[in-house]
Amino acid sequence: MPTPRPEVITPVDHGLLEVETLADLDRHLAEANLRGVALQGIDLTAVDLTGIDVRGALFIGCAMTTAQAVDLIQRGALVVPRFADLPYPTEPSRLYTADDLATGFTAGGFDAMYDTQVYRHFLAHGGAMPDLREALAQRIHDHGIENALRDETHDWIAAHGPTSVVGIMGGHVEQRGTPGYRDAAELARLLASAGRLVLTGGGPGVMEAANLGAYTAVHPRADLMAAIDDLAVAPDYHSAQAYTAAAFAVRDRLRPDPGTTWAAQGGLSFSNSVREELILRLSRGGIVFAPGLAGTVQEVFQAATMTFYGTDGGSGPFVFLGRDYWTGRLPVEGLLRPLLATSPLGDLAGLIHLTDDVHEAAELLLAHG
Predict the structure, then answer these.
(1) Three-class SS of residue 41?
(2) Based on the structure, what is the number of domains in the chain?
(3) Contact 287/276 with Cβ under 8 angstroms?
(4) Enclosing H/E stretch for 47
(5) Same domain, 305 and 217
(6) What is the predicted pLDDT for the residue at 257?
(7) Cα angle at 281 between 275 and 283, to 5 degrees?
(8) Are residues 78 and 174 in the same domain?
């Protein structure tokens, strides 16, 4: 029996024009007015919408009867139905948690885990080249994730300012326990403990290390190093069962107070390019580039293009972690500096910094904030 999907329909409301819970809906129903409102992922099968003004309302990923859908459309609403036969939600209205993604692991191991089930469904339906129906479902899912990430970071930025968000990019092949892994984790811990929100691509390697560092920001440094030692028993993500089990054991042992960290939320999406662009766009406090290959280099120049044209306002520092790597093996710095020097916004070459020291990197980023 396949692992049941977590419905991811227990969100936080972020605006009067977005209805994501039945409690939010009741407030609108009391005024008999849903005009121009977007309803995401709500079970409406037992809700009477007769007499409610629904002109221009958007119902996306909501459970409803055929009769309800027909009635809403006839009265001027837009209805994007739920794709009920997919292993992932049509329009997630909040970010995933680690517990969402781990559903099924305790009983059935890695193969039964929700995240694995979705990935295998993705591969079985064309991978990066899905058929029309699957492609549409994936885009709607990713729209929900993008909207949820914008909502969550909007709240954070409103409280802490735009330069409080820092991105950390780097190679997914960096194994647990290596110096590069430890550096990324330590840097993220320093940033998170100083009040920065750390964003990563969510994968293994440098990304996992940065997530771990942010996750342990409320713990002593010794706890982070001990956690890395425990994880290093299963260093390679290709050994999926042992790798995942070690991660969950460390997470459960170090689980922080939910009110003190944002590190346990994930904006998983099918489209890498959309995810990367959003992370880079949000990282106004600077971006760290740890050693990586093609994917990391792509992110470097994607960020450089956005900064060159100022598409998202001012940029924080570009911190390249690993001087020899970025000037020798992949001399990206030598290409980037003259490029940014010719920006229509002025000479931006000063944004580029190279260092081997995570403390120096943290100081550069915290000084900008």
Answers:
(1) coil
(2) 2
(3) no
(4) none
(5) yes
(6) 54
(7) 105
(8) no
CA 234, CA 161: separation in Å to the nearest integer? 38
Name the E strands within the chain: 18-19, 38-40, 58-60, 78-80, 96-97, 165-169, 197-199, 265-266, 287-289, 318-321, 352-355
- Locate 236 and state its tokens: 């390679």
For 149, counting Cβ atoms within 10 Å of its Cβ (0-12 exposed, 13-18 middle, 19+ buried), the class is buried
175 & 322 share domain: yes
Regarding whether 107 and 184 lie in a shared domain, the answer is no
Instruction: Please say if the pLDDT value at position 7 is more than 50.
Output: no
**Which CA distances in Å does 231 have to 223, 228, 244, 269, 279?**
12, 5, 9, 25, 26
Q: Give dist(CA 188, CA 288) in Å, integer.
A: 10
Cβ-contact 151, 97 below 8 angstroms:
no
Average confidence (pLDDT) over 113-139 = 95
Angle of CA points 264, 268, 269, to nearest 5°: 165
Q: How far is CA 44 from CA 9, 30, 39, 57, 153, in A?
A: 13, 16, 10, 14, 29
* pLDDT tens by residue, 147-190: 888 888 888 899 999 999 999 999 999 999 999 999 999 999 99
User: Which residue type, as a one-letter code, is found at position 314?
Assistant: G
Distance in angstroms between the alpha carbons of the first and the last residue of the chain: 50
Q: Is the pLDDT reported for residue 265 higher than 80?
A: no
Angle 69-71-75 from CA coordinates, rounded to 5°? 115
- Residues of the domain holding 92: 1-160
At which residue do the structure tokens 């460390």 appear? 250
Q: Helix 294-309 vs helix 332-341: angle between axes, to the nearest 10 degrees? A: 10
Rounded Cα–Cα distance for residues 16 and 151 (Å): 13
User: How far, in Å, are 101, 173, 199, 325 from residue 286 at the CA level?
Assistant: 29, 23, 11, 20
List the alpha helices (DSSP H) in 264-347: 272-282, 294-309, 323-324, 332-341
Residue type present at position 43: D
pTM for the model stands at 0.86
Does residue 20 contact residue 42 with C-beta atoms inside 8 Å? yes
